[in-house]
Fold this sequence. Notes:
Layout: H1 2-11, H2 14-60, H3 67-83, H4 88-95, H5 99-134, H6 138-148, H7 150-163, E1 189-190, E2 197-198
Antiparallel strand pairs: 1-2
Amino acid sequence: MLEKWKQKALNMNIRKAAAVFLITSLAAMGILGGLAAANFGGRLSEFKAAAESEYEKREDEGDRENRDSREEEDRAYRDSRESDWDSEDHWREIQSLSPGDLALAVISAMIILALGIWYLALCVMWAYQKADRLGARRDLWAVLALLFQLPAIGALYLYAAAKGTCQKCGKLMEPGKNFCAYCGEPFQKQCAECGEKLKPAQKYCGSCGAKQDK
């Protein structure tokens, strides 16, 4: 069973899978944002209208001679409301969630959890596939990708760039070796004219300019 999943990871088109994940994530976030706006938008507007109505009512009370005192009372009232943030009444208001609020919270948690698992799986498969192409330890890099995600994949690419790869098969170069252990491609060649050491991909010698045979 495990070998079957490993084979699927090796055959997966990572770029296509990453594109599908990105599009799905953006669509899911857009849907959740719309549901949240629909669920809380009306409630916020009702709260704002009630607050404005209460303020206008307080403004109409009394005559102009008492306006200064009312303003002081308003400031004192707002200060007292801010200080009551942790009061029992406030916590009672927070806990009184509607069924729509609870349903939205559950749906959001499930979608975020699913996207998180999908993201981890993509990172593991990406690292596993890249390590296989390099001839590196696949299981080790898969575990690192599970723990650190994209930073681990970036480290794998940096590791490959630092060690160098075979021009023909893409496997990691082994230090001190002149030929690739996977395909036999020489890591260096010599110019037939002057004996200068060249890379296998070079078509001309940088010292004498002689064209190199394949």
